[in-house]
Amino acid sequence: MTRLHLNPLLVVSAAVAALVGLPVASVLTNILSGGTGAIWSHLAATVLPDYVANTLVLCLTVGLGVVVVGVATAWLTTMHEFPGRRIFEWALILPLAMPAYVLAYVYTDFLQFVGPLQSFLRESFGWSKADYWFPEVRSLGGAVCMFVFVLYPYVYLLTRTAFTERASGMLEAARTLGLGPWRSFFRVSLPLARPAVAAGAALALMETLADYGTVSYFGVQTFTTGIYRAWFSLGDRIAAAQLAAALLCFVLLLLMIERRSRGRSRFHDTTGRNRPRAGQRLSGWRGWLASAVCALPLTIGFLLPAGLLLRLGLGSGEARFGEQFFTMVRNSFVLAGLTATIAVSLALLLAYGARLSKGLLPRALNRLVSLGYAVPGSVIAVGVLIPVSRLDIWLAGQWQDWFGTNPGLLLTGGIAALIYAYLVRFLAVALQAVNTSLAKITANMDDAARGLGLGQSATLRRVHLPILRGSLFTAGLLVFVDVMKELPATLVMRPFDFDTLATQAYTLASDERLAEAASASLAIVAVGLLPLIAMSRQISRRRR
Asked: How far is CA 130 from CA 122, 126, 127, 133, 134, in A?
């Protein structure tokens, strides 16, 4: 009789993939679900067209904006020399530390009628309200601007890498064929960088679709705001799940378009001369124009809002650094720390299992886990709460039968379900970082360890872990920062009277208490700067 042998790591991978896929499956099962009643019919007849239209407009305009800004700044910092280039090449990623909803709060305070800018204009020119027109920041156009200047670094980073890796040999060949700088850019560099541009734009659009704080604060009706309204205002979980399923279809369509846009094209450079090339020097007004082009998104996306946050936080008289503030800091750090620790541990098991296996199943399971990052937090929250709340009710009933007492909600009444939602959303971040680092360790080291009599666990503990220590820390830091910034899932799933920095900033800003929201927003931005500082140091070293 043949004994069935199960690889423990493969079992772990399958279990994790099933848990990650459960919320998505829970949402999708409600697409054709009946029983939504008059509320879903009302949503479909009234606000659903607005959700679709606003979401499409956001995707199109934000996608175009991040591509223009990201490609332009990547091209200038990679291919040219101009004043401040060495600073801009790493500083242009700093807006990633500024969540879009924080940017929305800051610019609302700065640009509103009683804000510093309009007050200064009225005092300087003696204007009254009827004497001038000023654009309304709390609008669809304002939301587009917030997203563009926060999310363009996704395109900038990937496109700059593509320009750096592929540029030198092919551009030299293009010059010998008589192509000038502009024609070389459009006919050689940009086509080669197309996969990077598409990937960066897809990441930016997924973040746009996942956002709740910005669109809610600006009064823009999207699927994310509709999910929150259907769940809490209307009390219809099935309608919320169907809206979440529609939003998930948007995300899947976006991923499919990005993949199909490549077609069968392949982008290779076979010259063997991809050494870093000396940038073309821009002198005079051209150099200063290039500096201005790079300074504009950096100033709008990070420098100006960071300065305004400091002014609000320090000049409001009541900086809110009291007991309540530190309670929110503790809550945020507990959630982020636990999630990061569990995510890195699971990512290490998944990546190591795929490395040891010769089959396709572990790699396919890892890809399934990686899809969680593409799912918005509001969708994950709905997908987690529906099955977990049912499990919670069943567990409470069993506990009542066994022990005669009612334990309450064991999972959704605490932070366990919220951490589960975070893991579904951000496990892919840790897995990508661990996979990238593990791939750099040659298989010969595994063979040498086995030759010395080490088993799989001993090889991981004594060979791989010392090498991976830095990458594991980076992976944990990235997950930590993402959890600190996450708003939609936290708003939906947090326990009663359990506030984090993100929820506090949103609540105070929604009550128009913008100055009081500054301290929580500053803390979020400060934590977000940590991985960007490390990334900036790596970028600045590449061309030395």
From this structure: 11, 11, 8, 8, 10
* DSSP-based three-state secondary structure for 242: helix
DSSP state of 229: I
d(CA 470, CA 225): 39
On whether the CB atoms of residues 535 and 522 are closer than 8 A, the answer is no
Q: 80 - beta bridge partners? A: 280
How does 91-126 read in b/e, with b if 16+ C-beta sit within 10 Å? bbbbbbbbbbbbbbbbbbbbbbeebeebeeeeeeee
Cα→Cα distances 151→22, 95, 146, 207, Å: 29, 7, 9, 8
Q: How confident is the model at residue 302 (pLDDT cuts 50, 70, 90)?
A: very high
- Which residues make beta-bridge pairs with 335? none
Q: Let me know if 179 is exposed, middle or buried by CB neighbors in 10 A (0-12, 13-18, 19+).
A: middle
pLDDT of residue 242: 76
534 vs 266: CA distance, rounded Å:
32
Residue 70 has pLDDT above 90, yes or no: yes
Closest listed residue to residue 71, CA positions, set 192, 250, 226, 206: 192
Q: For residue 436, which amino acid is it? A: T
Angle at which helices 48-79 and 194-210 cross, to 10°: 140
123-177 per-position pLDDT tens digit:
888 888 877 888 888 899 999 999 999 999 888 988 887 777 655 555 555 556 5
Tell me how far apart the alpha carbons of residues 411 and 385 are, in angstroms, rounded to a whole number. 10
* H or E element that contains 317: none
Phi, psi of 280 (to 5 degrees): -70, 125
- Distance CA(328)–CA(522), nearest Å, equals 13
